Amino acid sequence: MGSPGNPWRIAAAQGIADWDNANTKFNLIEHPWGGTIKLINTSALVRGVTFWWCGAGGASGFEVSYNLYHDSGDQYTNNMRRAIASHEIGHAHFIGHIPNDQGWEGLMLKYASLTYYDSHFSPTNTDITLVNQIYP
Ligand SMILES: [Zn+2]
């Protein structure tokens, strides 16, 4: 996913490390068909998108895409890329969004401003609780 030194590759590596260091029982492992992280460039999609698929035993794979289209126009900082990367990696844990109307904070908020992401770029207790509710 991008050459070494690509800011999105760095952001994805940080996001994976942040989630792996979070207090959950879910760990992402490298596997030939388990998951893909890639870069896209399209005006038709939001900042990032994650697709899941299921096998006979349940969730079996994911594809995370980071959309370069918004990067320069929105003047992303490295913290914003890290937050967007981590948000999508949260989806790669097969979790959805935190509703915005409950007063909670977290990477997995349904709607987050770039300003919010600039100062909130790693999983919060709310994000970790969400994962732990699914994988106790
Ligand atoms: Zn999302």
What structural category arises from helix and sheet content?
alpha+beta
CATH T-level topology = Collagenase (Catalytic Domain)
The percent of residues in helical segments reads: 25-40%
Q: Give the distinct bound molecules.
A: zinc ion
Percent of sequence in beta strands: 15-25%
Work out the count of structural domains.
1
CATH class designation: Alpha Beta
Major sheet details? 3 strands, mixed
CATH superfamily: Collagenase (Catalytic Domain)
Please tell me about this protein's structure.
The chain has 136 residues and is of the alpha+beta class. The protein has a single domain (7-134), classed as Collagenase (Catalytic Domain) (3-Layer(aba) Sandwich). It is built from five helices and three strands. It has helices spanning 7-21, 69-73, 78-92, 114-119, 125-134, and strands at 35-40, 48-55, 58-67. The chain has a three-stranded mixed β-sheet. The protein is globular and about 40 Å long. The mean pLDDT is 91.
